Amino acid sequence: MNARLLLLAFFSPIFGIAQTMGSFIDARDGHEYKTVRLGDQTWMAENLAWDAGEGTYLYDWRCVTMEKEGRKYTWFAAMQGQEGEGVRGACPENWRLPTKDDWLTLVQYLGGPSIAGKELKEGGDSRMEMKIPGRRFSDGKFRVARSEVHYWSSTSTGLDVAWCLIVFKVLDQSMGYEYDKEYVKSIRCIQED
Questions:
Q1: DSSP run (H or E) holding 57
Q2: pLDDT digits (tens, 9 = 90+) for 66-94
Q3: 72-100 burial, b for 16+ CB within 10 Å, e for fewer?
Q4: Which residues are CB-neighbours of 3 under 8 A, at least 6 positions away?
Q5: Is the pTM value of this prediction over 0.70?
Q6: Which residues contact 77 (CB under 8 A, 6 or more apart)?
Q7: pLDDT at residue 141, as a whole number
């Protein structure tokens, strides 16, 4: 595994949780990602930025860059033709798309859905540093509507819909919701066990 672990531990007085920060380099494109270990899970601490081909989008306004926000993906691009929960999909080697249960485990670890959003956002105690980017609308344009961010899971909940996590800008909560698989969302990968 091409990874180096920074031996930095942070203690949150609010939750009494220790986070171990690290980083790794994606061998596909040389992009370096920050990571954070929360409980028994290790997550990317930034959005996936790899170009997965069709169904992958970059923001198209001048104030947002791929380095800040990563890319957006349809669920099909996220899955890369694989089926089932917990597949690698668009994630780097030794990483995979999180399942609905992975996201719910993280939310519970951070205090539950009524407060986890606060901990997941930039400056939160989790160090996940989720930025609230703009959204891609049905006309195909990205706009700065920085009210929430959505993250895909590999959990399909129907023929045309899949589960994703939503984190809100002005609320402390997070929630899950089912979205059309053609919509574009961000990806955070979780390390394989």
A1: strand 56-57
A2: 566 789 899 999 999 999 999 999 999 99
A3: bbbbebbbbeeeebbbbbbbbeebbbbbb
A4: 22, 23, 24, 25, 35, 94
A5: yes
A6: 52, 53, 54, 55, 56, 90
A7: 63
Task: Work out the burial of residue 166: count CB atoms within 10 Å of its CB; fewer than 13 is exposed, 13-18 middle, 19 or more buried.
Answer: middle
CB 126 within 8 A of CB 10: no
Q: Tokens representing 163?
A: 């589960």
CA Rg value for the chain? 16
Identity at 154, one-letter amino acid code: S
Cα 78 to Cα 38: distance, rounded to the nearest angstrom: 23
Q: Provide the 3-class DSSP secondary structure of residue 79.
A: helix
Residue 36 backbone phi and psi in degrees, to 5: -145, 135
